[in-house]
Fold:
Amino acid sequence: MAIESSARGRTPRVVTGRTVLVCLLAFFAVVAGVNGVMIRAAVSTFGGVETESSYKAGLAFAREAAEARSQDALHWQVDARLSELPDGEKGLLVEARDAAGLPLHGLSAFARLVHPVNRQADRVVSLQETQAGQFRGTADVPAGQWDLILELSHDGSRAFRSRNRITTH
Structure:
C-alpha cells in the first residue's frame, strides 16, 4: 500500500483510536481545570454569607415585626416628598399627622437615601422641624433609584419607620 503525499509534500497523519482518546481526555482536563479555577475564585471572593449571625438576624426580624405592628396601631399619616431645588440639590419635605389628621408634636426625624447596590453612595438627609409635624432637609443626590428610609422618634425611641423606593432625575 502506497502512502500518497499531500499537496505540501507531507504525509497525512493517521487518526487512531489512541489519538482520539488523548484529545478527548485533554479536552475534558482543560474544562475541569478551568472549572476548578472559576470555583476557587468564586468561593474565595464571596462566601455566600450576608449576615454574621442568622440567630441575631432572626431576633432582629422578630423585633422589627413587633415594631411594625405597634406602628400600624398608631394610624399615623406620614407623607414625604422629594423635589428638585434651583441649585440642583434635592429638597425633602416630611409631614407627620396623627390618626385624626392633626400635626404630631415633639418628634425628631431622620432620613437616609440608600443606594440599592452601592453602600458607598448612601446619603444622610439632615431634617429640621419647621413647624409642628413638618420637617425639611436637603441633600446632594445623583439621579437614579434610591431607598428612602424615614424614621420618626419620640423621646429617643423610634415610633415610625418607612422604607420606600424612589427614583430621582
Q: What stands out?
A: The domain at 76-168 is CATH 2.60.40.1930 (Immunoglobulin-like). The beta strands are 77-84, 90-97, 108-114, 123-125, 128-131, 134-139, 144-154, 157-168. The first strand starts at residue 77 and ends at 84.
